[in-house]
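help with this.
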Amino acid sequence: MTAQQFLLSGVMLGVLGLAAGCASTDMQNPAPAAAARTAAPALTCFGVLPVQVSVSEDRVLTADEEKALSAGAAVVDAILRNALSANKKARMLDVDQIGGLQAPDAVVNLETSREVAQSVGCNAILETSLSRYVEREGGPYGVQEPAAVTLAYRLYDVGTGTVLCHGRFDEQQQSVMENLFTLGKAGRRGMTWLTAEELAREGLMGQLGQCKHLTK
């Protein structure tokens, strides 16, 4: 065997040894993602809280804004209940059953949530809040002010506080001339200006549609 052949053989043996060592390590140490994977809490059913108005403490509302948000919350609540009417796991709660409300961006109050959920025999709660609801000024083909809606939701297990799904919708409708990225969305909307109710319905349904527990 020449010196060159001997050197080549040594290199090949080293590569094979390294490959064998890597294979052994992979088998003994499974991927962290697989090892850390845990089963999600089993959802028996979920209580649906009425939609609430939620604004930051430093935001001062005018009387007209308060009136618009209150009316908007009733509108979004009707949309929500209609959307979940066919969901066999949804249990609608009324104002007398809710105890204390909390916004989807606040820390979960598990003690209160458990009491509310247990009142309908469920282990999860769906909270939805509305923080902006501005009605369109004008018609479908021309506006002085477009509709604007900001809402959020959170579905969580009341036993552990685990958030099963959450989402947020925040939009003030814009024209294609103001923002070319709205062209596709404008096309789907028939190139018209939506009312606040239409915008809220589109936004809420889009958010709920991303949660497997809310689309059954």
Notes: The CA atoms of residues 88 and 216 lie 8 Å apart. The beta strands are 46-48, 52-53, 90-92, 124-134, 137-139, 142-145, 148-157, 163-172. The chain has a mean pLDDT of 79. The radius of gyration is 27 Å.
